Structure formats: structure tokens, C-alpha cells
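Revision sheet: C-alpha cells.
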Amino acid sequence: MPNTHSPYTAFATLLSSNGHPVSPAELHGLLLGRCCAGAGFDAEAWLADAAQLLENEPSDPVRNALIGLQEMVKGELTGEDIALVLLLPGDEAALLDRAVALGQWCQGFLAGFGQHSGGLDLSSDAKEVLQDLVAISQVQEALEESEDGENDYMEVMEYLRVAPLLLFTELAKPAAPEPKPSLH
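Predicted:
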């Protein structure tokens, strides 16, 4: 029996019933993107960034959900796990719906990352991840034409569960202090 009360569905309902024209996937992407670019985990700053997508002032339940989402992401990024839980529709949703949400997630991630990555010096690995995300954000067109849409979707999801961690590790973890130049 499909679980209609997935966290995704519950959050989507919360957003739409409060008049926010945004998917949980895009918000989760936005949150991860900004965290991976080193924006930190200040709740007010996150709510301010999210406000642009929400288009109107979030009510307390929405604010609490957003802060809870951030706590979850913070735990994942700073914890020992090496994969993220993506906030996407469950497997019972149509592949196209999941692909659309995946694209929204990537768009959110790129937007969040872009807002906070000004002046960052990105490694070639990091640039490659961002290029991949741009490509994946167009994924629904590719999946529709593919016999193996399910497999492709799973592969992309697996990639997205680890790719942001590479960016986070490179950009957001505090760098080791530079050794002070010795005075001669």
C-alpha cells in the first residue's frame, strides 16, 4: 500500500495550503546549495533566502518546517554519513513527477549555491559537479524518452546524494589555518 503521508507529501501540502508556490524539492535544493557554498546554518539567514521562493511571509508551521529541514541538513552535512536524504516524492509517485521534482531540486541547489558562492575558488571537481547539476536540472526531458527511466532516475538520485557533499567538504568545512610565514 503506497504511503501517501510521506514527508514530501506532507511538506508539499503544508506549502501549498499556505500559498507558497514552491516544491519541497526546490526548497531542499536551495538549502543544500547555500550550505554547500558555505552560507552556514543561521536560521534567519536561511529563512530570508527561502522567502524569495515562498513569495509571501511564512506562517509559524512553515517556518518551523523550514528550520526543521535545516536542522536535518545540518546533521547530514556535519555528521559521519556520506549520503544525503533527498526530499523528493516517494517511489509511488509517477516517474515524470519525480523527474520534475529532481529538476526543481537541482535548480534550487544551483540558485542557493549561486547566491553564496561569489568569489569562491572552485576546484575542477567542484565545477564538474555544478555542471552535472545544470545537466540534471533538465532531466525530465531525458527520462521521458528513455526505456530505462527508472534506472536513470535512481542513478541520478544516487549521484545527488553524494555530489553535494563533495562541494560541502571542499567549500564549507573550515579550512586548516595557513601557517604563518616565518620571519627572517
